[in-house]
Amino acid sequence: MKFKSLCLCTLGYVTILLCDHFNVNMRLRLNLSVVHDALLY
After folding, report:
1. DSSP 8-state assignment for residue 13
2. What is the pLDDT of residue 13?
3. Through-space distance between the first and last CA atoms of the chain, rounded to whole angstroms
């Protein structure tokens, strides 16, 4: 039972890390595209 909860905690932690990483990447892409558009016009 302890092992199962540990696995669930690890899985949740990894999922949160991946989501954070993905969100940061999306924000960087959005910022880069905004800067790119600003430079073009």
Report:
1. H
2. 93
3. 60
The first and second tokens of residue 21, run together, are: 């990483």
Residue matched to tokens 């990894």: 14
Q: Report DSSP state, residue 1.
A: -
Work out the angle at residue 8's Cα, subtended by the Cα atoms of residues 5 and 9, and round it to the nearest 5 degrees.
85
Q: What is the rounded distance in angstroms from the CA atom of residue 29 to the CA atom of residue 26? A: 5
pLDDT digits (tens, 9 = 90+) for 14-36: 999 998 989 999 999 998 888 88
For CA atoms 9, 15, 17, 19, give the dihedral sign. Answer: negative
In this structure, the chain runs to a length of 41
CA distance 12 to 4: 12
